[in-house]
Amino acid sequence: MGSRTASVRCVPAAPCWVSLMARDLDAAQAFYGQLLGWEFEPGPDRFGPYVHAVVEGEAVAGLGVSGSGWMMPVAWTGYFGTESADTAADAVRERGGTLAVGPLSFDAGRVAFAADPAGAVFGLWEGPPGPARRLALPGSPVWIELRTPDPFAAALFYGEVFRWDDRDPAHFEVRYEHERVVLRVEGRSVAALRAEKATGPVGTPPHWEVSFSVADADAAAKLAERLGGGLLGPVFDTPYGRVARLTDPEGGRFAVISPPA
Fold first, then answer.
1. Which long-range contacts link 90-99 to residues 24+ away (Cβ below 8 Å)?
2. Which run of H or of E encompasses 198?
3. Which pLDDT does position 205 carry in this prediction?
């Protein structure tokens, strides 16, 4: 995950990083750079071309090339911090999930890709522990949400893999609100698991959706379409802000969210 990523100190069991596997890295940089105001810096190339998206000097995401070592589809992946990628990987397998890649030593930590029993892909990142990361920057990832047919079964899986119930409730809380199972760290909602049935001709499989902060979700949705992306339904309000669910020109799904009015 590179020198900048290695400096990110993650809270175990909480989201700590996001990355995109694209087919055309230059095209992805052009799209997301204009949409989210990102600049780019070279990242580690052990597994193929990889760059860091940077906002005001802060690395907020990584972009790599699908198929260059990882054999991943075009998609955003959210990573959860863990004290031990090997222990977490064992827990994934023991609880019916699938380990796709790793754990592997990567820069200053260890990384793995896994899928939960319903097929939603996520990452494991073992790195230096530290306080919760609060990125209040436009273009930074501020929320990830699992969309799956059975969020309660999923919550049991992730809760056991990351030992959510064993964490200090003063700093780490899992609760049900707004029809979601919500993960809160240091008093801030950072992730949720919600029910969503498969849609479309072949169905949209369960997946973690990454949301990036923008000043105006409606304006960002229009800009995404002008840049060759797509809009997955109308922009809508949620208790967490106004959301536009989008696709990039290669079909990678993500969302943008602006503060509540």
1. 91/160, 91/161, 92/116, 92/124, 92/161, 95/157, 95/160, 95/161, 96/157, 97/157, 97/161
2. none
3. 87
Condensed to tens digits (0 to 9), the pLDDT of residues 215-243 reads: 999 999 999 999 999 999 999 999 889 99
- The structure tokens listed for 173 are 């809380």
- DSSP SS3 for 158: helix
Q: Which residue ranges in the chain fall short of pLDDT 70?
A: 1-9, 45-47, 67-72, 107-108, 128-136, 198-203
DSSP assignment of 1-56, as one string? -HHHHHTPPBPBTSEEEEEEEES-HHHHHHHHHHHH--EEEE---TTS-EEEEEET
In whole angstroms, what is the distance from residue 55 CA to residue 215 CA? 14
Which residue reads 């990454």 in tokens?
210
> CA-based angle 30:33:36, to the nearest 5?
140
Q: What is the DSSP track for 97-124?
A: -EEEEEEEEETTEEEEEEE-TT--EEEE
**pTM of this structure:** 0.88
Position 207 scores a pLDDT of 93
Contact by Cβ (8 Å): 257, 143:
yes
Q: Is the peptide bond before 103 cis (omega within 30 degrees of 0)?
A: yes
- Read off the pLDDT of residues 171-227 as tens digits, 9 standing for 90 and up: 889 999 889 999 998 888 889 999 987 654 445 789 999 999 999 999 999 999 999
DSSP state of 70: S
| Structural contact between residues 85 and 130, judged by C-beta atoms closer than 8 angstroms | no
Residue 173 CA to residue 156 CA, distance in Å, equals: 14
State how beta strands 207-213 and 141-148 pair: antiparallel
